[in-house]
Specification:
Layout (H helix, E strand, L loop, with lengths): L2 E5 L3 H13 L3 E6 L3 H10 L4 E3 L2 H5 L6 E4 L6 H10 L3 E4 L7 H14 L3 E3 L7 H11 L6 E9 L9 H4 L7 H17 L3 E9 L11 E8 L4 E7 L8 E6 L2 E6 L9 E6 L2 E4 L7 H13 L9 H20 L3 E2 L5
Parallel strand pairs: 1-2, 1-4, 2-3, 4-5, 5-6, 7-10
Antiparallel strand pairs: 7-11, 8-9, 8-15, 9-10, 11-12, 12-13, 13-14
Helix pairs in contact: 4-5, 5-10, 6-8, 8-10
Enzyme class: oxidoreductase
Organism: Pararhizobium capsulatum DSM 1112
EC number: 1.1.1.292
């Protein structure tokens, strides 16, 4: 059983991760919030025994085996490095940080300490994307040539705040959503992006020069080109993930979501068929793999290095949207 400390009394932990930890047999022993009042209330509401206000108290707790970091993005670096140096395994929200240098420092610290580090790109835990990955690996669409991702919706009011008005915290749609697209593309395709172009949009939600929607394309090492549309402003959009190959196409629908669900259709010379999908909780799947990695059985679904790749792409898309130029994606790995 993994005993967890929560760094951040966050909405995502409240809505998704706390239940997932407990569902896979984990225990949450402590939560850290810099607000003593908020931390105590959060601990009481979620039946967490301890509430602390400092990072030292959380990572120094001998009852904590692993930490889940879900503070705002600019805080991740110091928190992850402190956890690694204290010998705690780490599941960190995406993006890992707001700069590649910081992300590399985090991964290096975890490697030096010999602890497991993972990025919480939950879409790797989706059965739809695993089915698409398996179909491509089995050659069912031939050579992948193109992909399209629609990851657009309406950002709920209770999730707005810093995502719309704090550039220094890594706000905006690109570091929130486009990084997920990148990671899912890498997972499904087994390929890495090398270049990005993009146009940002200000649709009325974001402030301080942050984009609340973006459209663009990435070129991958194999030559594949992937389009993406990410938005906080489109209430009635339907998410999708498509991959088109030399011998067939895959159409994922309602699949860029946090809940289990969605369909995948394969079209090729044999006609059209819906792939069988064994849906499961995305966050539970992430945690099952994380616990196995702690026990020495395999790797996390999304490693720290994977988190570096998605951040590198997000930063390149941000630069491309600002400059109007094509930008190379360089992870430094």
């Amino acid at each position: 059983m993994t005993r967890w400390g929560l760094i951040g009394a966050s909405t995502i932990a409240h809505e998704w991760v706390i239940d997932a930890i407990r569902a896979v047999g984990g225990e949450i022993v402590s939560v850290m919030s810099t607000s003593a009042e908020r931390g105590a209330s959060y601990a009481r509401d979620h039946d967490i025994p301890k509430s602390v206000t400092t990072l030292v108290d959380l990572v120094g707790d001998p009852d904590v085996d692993a930490v889940y970091v879900s503070t705002t993005n600019e805080l991740h670096r110091d928190q992850v490095i402190a956890a690694a140096q204290a010998g705690k395994h780490i599941l960190c929200e995406k993006p890992l940080s707001t700069s590649l240098g910081d992300a590399h420092a985090m991964v290096d610290a975890a490697r030096a300490a010999g602890v497991v580090m993972a990025a919480n790109h939950h879409l790797r835990g989706a059965a739809t994307h695993q089915a698409m990955r398996d179909a491509i690996a089995a050659g069912q669409i031939g050579k992948p040539l193109a992909a399209r991702v629609c990851h657009a919706g309406l950002l709920p009011a209770h999730l707005q705040g810093w995502r719309l008005d704090r550039p220094e915290a890594g706000g905006g749609v690109i570091l929130d959503i486009t990084v997920h697209d990148t990671d899912t593309l890498r997972f499904v395709l087994g390929d890495d992006p090398v270049e990005a172009i993009a146009f940002g949009q200000h649709g009325g939600l974001a402030q301080s020069g942050l984009e609340d929607a973006v459209m663009g394309a990435m070129r991958f090492k194999s030559g594949l080109i992937a389009q993406f549309h990410d938005s906080f402003t489109t209430k009635y959009a339907v998410t999708s993930f498509e991959v088109h190959g030399s011998a067939g196409s895959l159409f994922g629908r309602n699949c860029m979501i946090q809940k289990p669900g969605g369909t995948v259709t394969l079209r090729n010379v044999e006609g059209e068929q819906e792939l069988p999908i064994d849906h499961g909780n995305l966050y539970e799947n992430t945690l099952i793999a994380f616990d196995a990695a702690i026990a020495g059985r395999g790797k996390p679904l999304c490693s720290g290095e994977d988190g570096i790749w998605s951040l590198a792409a997000g930063l390149a898309v941000t630069k491309a949207a600002a400059s109007g130029a094509s930008v190379k994606i360089e992870s430094g790995l």
